[in-house]
Amino acid sequence: MMDNFSFRQRSQSGFSLIEFMVAGLLGGILIGGAVFVFVSSNRSYLETERSIILSDSGRFALQILNDSLRHAGFFGGVALQDIDQDASLSAVTGDCTGFGAAYDMRRYIFAQAADGSGNAFGCITDAVPGSDVLLVKYLRPDPVDSAVDPNDAEVTTFNDLDGKTTYLIANAERGLLLDGADTPPDVGAGQIYARGTAWPYEFQIFYVREGGVPSLVRKTLAWNGAGMSIQTEDMVQGVQVMRFRFGWDSSGDGDIDQYGYLDGVGDSWDSIGIVEVFLLLRSADEEFSYENKKSYVVGDTIVDGGGDHYWRLLMSSSVTLRNPNLFIRSGV
């Protein structure tokens, strides 16, 4: 009886201290491994999410810039020097100055550096000091059809000009810049603007605005309720640095043979045929578990992360200017 009792007593005894310690160690290893996998997966997810956000913002910014640059210099087939201003063309509220003036048709693409206070073109006061500011002018490829006289089928004028838009009425020889609300010229046979087409006029200035979260900003010509004015549009948040590299024909033979940044273009703006765009994107918020010690070559500028906690992404594109290249190759 005693032997059976002793056996049952031994068989019902619990874990020993060593067994508990081993079990605890194994459990800790399993839990630690699970935590490590979770933290790593979460960090990888956050990195991927940050990268996607920056990449999407960068692609959108490049798309906006590239689209504008591809249309630069399109004026319906008329040369800049053959464009007149309508006598009733109203002044632009908040207009820029110099080549940046909305209706100054001397140049369709131009850039300058913001000064130490962030001023540029006489209408920008909040750009990142020393940053590139790009001006582009062109006609939107959305022409307004001319009206047709039902009696003699001769094109004479336009029916559907928008009173809140500036237009260029142009044929192959002359162009007239006018407000859509004003009376357009006769485009019938024998007239100065005979068989002219009305094209909506586009004026755009791009720059990076200084602030808590740097952003790509665009100045445009738009209706303000009483007339045409220079208005500001926030385009893409998180664009920290924007630089441009230009390619131009320096020999006059129709080929792009020289490249340089803003300070090297000099008086070659009429010969610009290629523009390379460099953008450095920055996350809107800091992630304090991340330390950015990288350096980024943005065109001719080096930006150092400096150990801060912002994620960054460098993107670039190269745009061939279709219309300017036609001018360059034709010697116009």
Automatic annotation (TrEMBL):
<dbReference type="Pfam" id="PF16074">
    <property type="entry name" value="PilW"/>
</dbReference>
<dbReference type="Pfam" id="PF07963">
    <property type="entry name" value="N_methyl"/>
</dbReference>
<dbReference type="InterPro" id="IPR032092">
    <property type="entry name" value="PilW"/>
</dbReference>
<keyword id="KW-1133">Transmembrane helix</keyword>
<feature type="transmembrane region" description="Helical">
    <location>
        <begin position="20"/>
        <end position="39"/>
    </location>
</feature>
<protein>
    <recommendedName>
        <fullName>Prepilin-type N-terminal cleavage/methylation domain-containing protein</fullName>
    </recommendedName>
</protein>
<dbReference type="GO" id="GO:0043683">
    <property type="term" value="P:type IV pilus assembly"/>
</dbReference>
<keyword id="KW-0472">Membrane</keyword>
<dbReference type="InterPro" id="IPR012902">
    <property type="entry name" value="N_methyl_site"/>
</dbReference>
<keyword id="KW-0812">Transmembrane</keyword>
